[in-house]
Amino acid sequence: MVVQADDAVFRPVRAGNPFEETVERLLQAIKLGVVVPGDRLPPERELATRLNVSRVTLREAIHALTEAGYVESRRGRYGGTFVNEQLPKPRRTPAKRLARDLAAGLDDALTLRFVLETGAAEAAATRTLTDAERDHLQRCLADTNAATLTDYRRLDSRLHLAIAEVTGSPSLTSAMADVRMRLNELLDAIPLLQPNLDHSNEQHRAVVDAILAGDPQTARQTMQEHLAGTEALLRAFLE
Amino acid sequence: MVVQADDAVFRPVRAGNPFEETVERLLQAIKLGVVVPGDRLPPERELATRLNVSRVTLREAIHALTEAGYVESRRGRYGGTFVNEQLPKPRRTPAKRLARDLAAGLDDALTLRFVLETGAAEAAATRTLTDAERDHLQRCLADTNAATLTDYRRLDSRLHLAIAEVTGSPSLTSAMADVRMRLNELLDAIPLLQPNLDHSNEQHRAVVDAILAGDPQTARQTMQEHLAGTEALLRAFLE
DNA sequence: AGTCAATGGACTGGACGTAGACCAATAGAC
DNA sequence: GTCTATTGGTCTACGTCCAGTCCATTGACT
C-alpha cells in the first residue's frame, strides 16, 4: 500500500552540501531582515557551532557572500563580519522563466504559506504577550510602515517573522522563514507599487492590533485577507 | 538589531550525519504507516537517489533497521526490503523522563501541530478532490476505525497524513509528518483507552465528512476540537 | 532446464567536511 | 606606549560519505 505519501517521506534527506546550505541560511538571515545592514554576525566560532558546521565551511560560505557583496569582515578584537549597508539588488529574473521553473512548486508553497501565516497570527493572538514582545511587534510594524520601496520586502518579511516569533514556537518561525525564502524570488519579480504597499501597511496594522488585543479570530481573518491580496497579485502577474 | 529570531535562522544546518537522518526517515515511513507491514520498500538504488544519500549509507540504515526488527531483506529478482509483519513494540520510556527531556520543546511541537493540522483540514476542504483522493481518505478512515489498540497510533497517523496529502501540498505533508514524529514518543507513553479511541473515531469521521463536503470552516473547527482532546490528555498525563 | 532481468551485497579511490591547533591583526584597557 | 583579549585567517591530519563498479542470488518466463 505504497501511495503518494512516500513522495513526502522519501524526500531528500539533505538539500545540498553543507557549504550551499550554509550560504542559503546566511542569505535567509539577511534577506528576511533578521540581521540588518550594519549588524555584526556572531563570531565565526560561535556561529559555526550553532549552525553545526565546521568553521572552515562557514568561512567558505562567508567568503562567497563577501564576493557577492552582502557582507564584509574585519579582523581584530571588536572586529567581525558585518552586513553591508548597500545590499546587492536581487536580479530580476524574467517572470516567464520563473513561472516555468516554479510552477510546479508554486501551489505547494502558497498553500503552506497560507496555513503557516494564518495559523501564526491566530496563535500569536491566543498567547498573552510580554511587554518586550509587544514592543518588538510594534517596532517591526513601525519600521515596515516607514520603509522605502527598496527596503520594503525585507522589512515586510521581518514583520511577518516577528508575528511567528511571538507564538513562542521556534519551529513555526523556522518553517515560515523557509517558505518565505521559497517565495522571495517570485515576489522580487513583481513590481512594487505604492498603492499596494499602502494597502499592505493598513492590513499589517489591523493584524498586529488584533494580536495585541488578543483576538485570534480577527487576527486570522485579517491575515487571510492580507495573504489573498499578495497571492492574487502574484498569480495575475505570472499568468 | 539581532533579536531572538536568529535562534530560528541560525539553527543547525543539519540534524546529524546522513546515516542517522536516513534511519529516522525510514522509521518515519514505518511508524506513520506510509508503508505497512508486508510492503516492499523501493529498490535500494532508487530509494538512495530519492533520499539523496549514497547507496552505502542507505544500506547501513537498512541494516540498522533489520537488526532492530523493523524490516527484512531478500535477494534476487522480486526480492527487496520488506516491512516486518510484527513490528517491535515501542519502549515505554517513563513519562517523567520524557516530560523532563521534552518539556522545552513540547509547547513548540504542540503549537506547530495545531497550526499545521487545522490548516491542513481547512485547505483539504477548500480543494475539489478527485475520486481517487476521496477514496483514499475514506479508506484511511475505515482502516483507522477498524484498528486494534496496538495498531491504532500508526493508522491514526496515516489518516492525518492522508488529510495533508489531499491538500496537494507535499511540503505541508512533510512538515506534518515531522512534527508528528516529534510527538510520537510522548504519545506512546500515554496508555490508550477504548473510550478515548471511540471518541477519536467519531471526530475523525466528522473531519473527513466536512472535507468531503467541502466545508472548510467545519473541517477546521472539528479538527481543532480533536486536537484539543489529545493535547489535554497529553498535558494531564505529563503533569 | 535454461535464460535473464532485477535486486541485494561488497569493494575501492577520491572528494568533501571536520576538529583542532596555531598565526595575525586590531582596538580598548591600563 | 604596552598589554591583552577577541576576532578573523591559515594549515594539517583524519574521518565520513559518495560515485562507480562488479559480484551473488533469485524466481518468473520461455
From TrEMBL, chains A, B:
<dbReference type="GO" id="GO:0003700">
    <property type="term" value="F:DNA-binding transcription factor activity"/>
</dbReference>
<dbReference type="InterPro" id="IPR036390">
    <property type="entry name" value="WH_DNA-bd_sf"/>
</dbReference>
<dbReference type="InterPro" id="IPR008920">
    <property type="entry name" value="TF_FadR/GntR_C"/>
</dbReference>
<keyword id="KW-0805">Transcription regulation</keyword>
<keyword id="KW-0804">Transcription</keyword>
<keyword id="KW-0238">DNA-binding</keyword>
<protein>
    <submittedName>
        <fullName>FadR family transcriptional regulator</fullName>
    </submittedName>
</protein>
<dbReference type="InterPro" id="IPR011711">
    <property type="entry name" value="GntR_C"/>
</dbReference>
<dbReference type="Pfam" id="PF00392">
    <property type="entry name" value="GntR"/>
</dbReference>
<dbReference type="Pfam" id="PF07729">
    <property type="entry name" value="FCD"/>
</dbReference>
<feature type="domain" description="HTH gntR-type">
    <location>
        <begin position="16"/>
        <end position="86"/>
    </location>
</feature>
<dbReference type="InterPro" id="IPR036388">
    <property type="entry name" value="WH-like_DNA-bd_sf"/>
</dbReference>
<dbReference type="InterPro" id="IPR000524">
    <property type="entry name" value="Tscrpt_reg_HTH_GntR"/>
</dbReference>
<dbReference type="GO" id="GO:0003677">
    <property type="term" value="F:DNA binding"/>
</dbReference>
